[in-house]
Amino acid sequence: MSYIFVSCTADNVAAMASTGYEAARRLEAGNPKGGGGSRTAHGHGHGRTAHNMSSSSLRKKSDLSLLSKVRCGLLRTILTNLQEIFLGTKLFILFPAVPLAIAANYLHFGRAWLFALSLLGLTPLAERVSFLTEQIAYYTGPTVGGLLNATCGNATELIIALFALHRGKIEVVKCSLVGSILSNLLLVLGSSLFLGGIANLHKEQSFDRKQADVNTGLLLLGALCHILLLAFDHAVSSGEQAADVAPRLWLSRACSIVMLLAYVAYLFFQLKTHRQLYESEEEEDDDNDDAVAQDEAVIGFPSALAWLLGMTAVIAILSEYVVATIEAASDSWGISVSFISIILLPIVGNAAEHAGAIIFAFKNKLDITLGVSLGSATQISMFVVPLSVIVAWIMGIKMDLDLELLETGSLIMAILITAFTLQDGTSHYLKGLVPLLCYLAIGACFFVSKSPANQINDVNAGVLTT
Amino acid sequence: MASRGYEAARIMEAGNLKGGGGGLGKEVHHGHGRTAHNMSSSSLRKKSDLSLVSKVRCSPLRALLANLQEIFLGTKLFVLFPAVPLAIVANYYHFGRAWLFALSLLGLTPLAERVSFLTEQIAFYTGPTVGGLLNATCGNATELIIALFALHQGKIEVVKCSLVGSVLSNLLLVLGSSLFLGGLANLHKEQLYDRKQADVNTGLLLLGALCHILLLMFRYAVNTGEQVVDAAPTLALSRACSMIMLLAYVAYLFFQLKTHRQLFESQEEDGDDDDDVVSEDEPVIGFASALLWLVGMTAVIALLSEYVVGTIEAASDSWGISVSFISIILLPIVGNAAEHAGAIIFAFKNKLDITLGVSLGSATQISMFVVPLSVIVAWIMGIKMDLDLKLLETSSLIMAILVIAFTLQDGTSHYLKGLVPLLCYLAIGACFFVFDSQTGEYNSFYPLFLLHNLASLHQKMHVDSDLNGITDQNNGIDAGGLTTTAAVTKAY
Questions:
Q1: Rounded CA gap, B481 and A238, in Å?
Q2: Most Cβ neighbours (<10 Å): which of A322, A465, B24, B256?
Q3: Residues B17, B21, B25, B29: is their CA dihedral positive or negative?
Q4: What is the pLDDT, as a whole number, of residue B174?
Q5: Nearest 5°: phi and psi at A326?
Q6: Would you say the ipTM is above 0.90?
Q7: Is B414 on the interface with A (CB under 8 A)?
Q8: What is the spatial distance between Cα A94 and Cα A127, in angstroms, rounded to a whole number?
Q9: Which residue in chain B has the smallest CA separation from A382?
Q10: What is the rounded CA–CA span in Å between residue B386 and residue B2?
Q11: What HEC string does A200-263 produce?
Q12: Where are the alpha helices (DSSP H) in B266-414?
């Protein structure tokens, strides 16, 4: 197996030879074209999951030629650090949205503008958090790194959910989480398989179905819990019981604990006992220009940690803006809150992962694509959703697992379609087009059924029942 | 003991097993219709030590004692046998009815296992096909007899709930725990099974699920909310679907016993475990004797089943859990205990084909044979039983079948594949614990709600001290969960 390396030109190599990063990178550049095999163990020892690999496709090589001209050593280090953090991704053009959003809050721009800017700002931040998690994983070893990745992989969804809970907007939480699962399963996976299929029209596209099976099984467990809650609601015969939420809450909390148990077992399975199923494919050394994968960390551990905390704080701020202004944006744009939560929020939130998945599908590395999309869906379904219920329990908010009929039905069908699509271990573009069209249909359905005229105190229902 | 017939056969067996597992031994084994079910139950047998009996000088007495020892002490579950006479005593001496229920349940477990053993013995004499048929019919004798008695007493909901619970327990609990424990025990080995067998069973289960869904949707489509649905079309549809399901079952038997036998040949053990599995190539009791014992044990099973069905409401009131929870969760767990243990043991030995044969085969049998047979028998008895399970049971059933179908579709296994169905069963169990399917209302398990509202607990205590008197009075009345639930909801 070989690695992607930064393609440094000869003069750059000479100029950069003095700094530590350069030395490491030159070492990398010297080795790959020859000895792939022995480095395998080394590479895998850094817990490079599919998620990390996918995000790495959006990295850019940092051109440090300018910086090397700065004479002060400390300043150069800081600037290098900053350049690595901020300019190390192709999404850096979206970074200005972050300060603009903060400015919009204090200068009282239109609230719809605040919403849009916050959403845009969240995208590069989510990608950077993933990068920082990967850097930290170099220092902490594969297991903790894998755990960190598993937890922070969907940090944005988690933080948005917690803020919405805090404000009592339970429907927004449920809708955004369901929308995230649907988006990962149908949109990300579908578009990746579709575009990858067209790009590799005459090649064989295969992937390891064992990994897909594990994820599908867990998603079915989550779907079962939602169906039980839904049927529970409908099965109660007398009308007076409808207001009695205690048994429904108890069942939701029991099911949440079951789901978290399953997630812990899944982590144990993935990181300890059946690691070999999940070793990510290393890319061939043919695409130096659009992916950067280093075997060494490029920033120090305390630096990475500090940046991670800082970025998470900024994500928190932007998430708070998003959650607070969602109704205003809904009114201003004329679409319902549910539609924004189910369709718009997840699309923007998943944009970085989405791009990465498509890129790897183009390269016919479907294991990574599946690892990203299915893994994200499993994480949200088995970890973020039950965690929200448990956190709501602690906060004294009555959140349950009961999604509406439409969401539950869409979720079941999405899981079934994905399961059937992936069950034979091969792929072609029609296998991607079908989930994509399903997503379009579901989007159309939510667009029409959840129009503002039909909105039956969607958002306020959360506040009323508390 | 070389002179005794049984011993001679067994020594020959012991000699054969260790040596010729391949050629001749296999042919002989297969010729006796040893299904996965028989193999699994055989894991609970013990070899009988006949040294004591051989000292008895009178020959017929010796034969009789040997016979008795084989029947009663030939299983590891013999410790539960005293429950049988205790249950009969409890009935006549009027112990608490909940005690009668518990003892009858405990007594049913070893009896079910012995019936399986006797069926296998008879199969030696009748040949593989009839033996297979016998096994297919008597394999779930307990569930069948309980269902028929409950029908007879008009407790249609108990019938439906216990049969659905049996299917769920086989699919999720037995299979899940076997795959989970087997996966943990064989962590670094490859665990394979033949997926063709699993596919056949899954297909049939889906057919059964389709029939239940059709009935459910039929009822919803017809019922506009203001008028009560007319029972006649639902009944007619149920009976038609039952005949279709029985047709499918007959075809399945033909497939399994005649045309595609080779798919279902059970894996033979490699002669390495004489101490915990006894598999004989010769029957150990005579044909007449086996038949007599079979009839006798079935009669005792019928007796205990009648006690179970008769006392289920009393047990429910006395233990504070709903009848539907007992029918769906408790009854099947106890009823399947012997099969369950066998399936886990074979999963430990990495013989997953046998595990699947037991659990999936049982589920298919109940879904495709016992359920439609109950409908037909009810038709003959003039009782209006249909295939319409309630929404919660039907959706649990569908999801269980889907989860299992996806789990088993690739022919390999690991512990996570067992953990997921197991957790599904926990979720379903939690759901039925809270919800009384029979009355359609929440379960009056008051402590649950207390756990829930710790903050307002103190306030509630004052309100409830007035209501507790009413609640206790109502418990004596056999009114299901209705009145007690009303008292609970008043507290809110």
A1: 14
A2: A322
A3: positive
A4: 93
A5: -65, -40
A6: no
A7: yes
A8: 11
A9: B420
A10: 58
A11: CCCCCCECCHHHHHHHHHHHHHHHHHHHHHHHHHHHCCCHHHHHCCHHHHHHHHHHHHHHHHHH
A12: 287-319, 323-325, 331-335, 337-348, 352-365, 371-381, 391-407
Residues from chain B that touch A227, judged by Cβ atoms under 8 A, are: 395, 399
Q: Residue B33: what are its φ and ψ, rounded to 5°?
A: 60, 40
Query: Which residues touch B164 (CB under 8 Å, ≥6 apart)?
Result: B328, B389, B393, B396, B397
Among residues B226, B262, B250, B267, the alpha carbon closest in space to that of B36 is found at: B267
Residue A423: count other Cβ atoms within 10 Å of its Cβ.
Answer: 15
Q: Going by DSSP bridges, is the β-strand pair B441-442/B435-436 parallel, antiparallel, or unpaired? A: antiparallel
pLDDT at A38: 37
Q: Residue A372, CB half-sphere, CA atoms under 13 Å: how many?
A: 34
Which structure tokens are listed for A465? Answer: 């029942």
Which residues in chain A touch residue B430, judged by CB atoms under 8 angstroms apart?
251, 254-255, 258
Task: Name the token pair of B81.
Answer: 């046998």
Q: Determine contact, residues A172/A335, Cβ cutoff 8 Å.
A: no
User: Of the candidates B171, B46, B31, B34, which has an alpha carbon nearest to the alpha carbon of residue B114?
Assistant: B46
- Beta bridge partners, A426, equal A206
Helices (H), A269-350: 275-278, 301-333, 337-339, 345-349
- Measured between its terminal Cα atoms, the distance across chain A in Å is 56
- What's the gap in Å between the CA of B11 and the closest CA on chain A? 43
Of B85-94, B221-230, B318-327, minimum mean pLDDT range:
B221-230
pLDDT of A43 = 36
B131 vs A375: which has the higher pLDDT: A375
Long-range Cβ contacts of A137-141 (<8 Å, 24+ apart): A137/A46, A137/A47, A137/A48, A137/A52, A138/A46, A138/A296, A138/A297, A139/A297, A139/A301, A139/A304, A141/A45, A141/A47
Instruction: State yes or no: pLDDT of A136 exceeds 50.
Output: yes
Q: Any CB–CB contact under 8 A between A393 and chain B?
A: no
Distance CA A275, CA A414 (A): 27
Give which of A79, A59, A83 is closest to A70, Cα–Cα: A79
> What does the pLDDT look like over B112-146, one tens digit per residue?
888 877 887 787 787 777 777 777 777 788 888 99
* Confidence class for position A183, pLDDT limits 50, 70, 90: very high
Distance from CA of A242 to the nearest CA of B (A): 10
Instruction: Give the distance from CA B68 to its chain's centroid.
Output: 26
User: CA–CA distance from B347 to each of B47, B142, B359, B361 (Å)?
Assistant: 22, 24, 12, 16
Interface contact flag, B492 A220, Cβ < 8 Å: no
Q: Residue B31's pLDDT is what? A: 39
List B412's β-bridge partners, or say none: B192
What is the band of B203 on the pLDDT scale with cuts at 50, 70, 90? very high
Q: Note whether A250 contacts B440, CB cutoff 8 Å.
A: no
Question: What's the rounded Cα separation, in Å, for the pair B411 and A84?
Answer: 47
Q: Say whether pLDDT at A450 is over 70.
A: no
At B476, is the pLDDT very low, low, confident or very high (cuts 50, 70, 90)? very low
User: pLDDT, tens digit, for every residue of A84-97?
Assistant: 777 766 677 777 77
Tell me what pLDDT residue B379 has.
92
Classified as helix, coil or strand, A31 is coil
Scanning B356-385 for CB atoms below 8 A from A yields none
Residue B230 three-state SS: coil
Whether A29 contacts A6, CB under 8 Å: yes
CB-neighbour burial class of residue A73 (10 A; exposed 0-12, middle 13-18, buried 19+): exposed
User: Which residues on B lie below 8 Å from A228 (Cβ)?
Assistant: 392, 395-396, 427-428, 431
- Residue contact B440–A221, C-beta within 8 A: no
Residue B43: which of B456, B311, B491, B348 has the closest Cα? B348
Q: Cα–Cα distance between A165 and A394 in angstroms, integer? A: 11
B439 closest CA partner among B336, B279, B354, B316: B316
Q: What is the mean pLDDT of residues A450-464?
A: 49
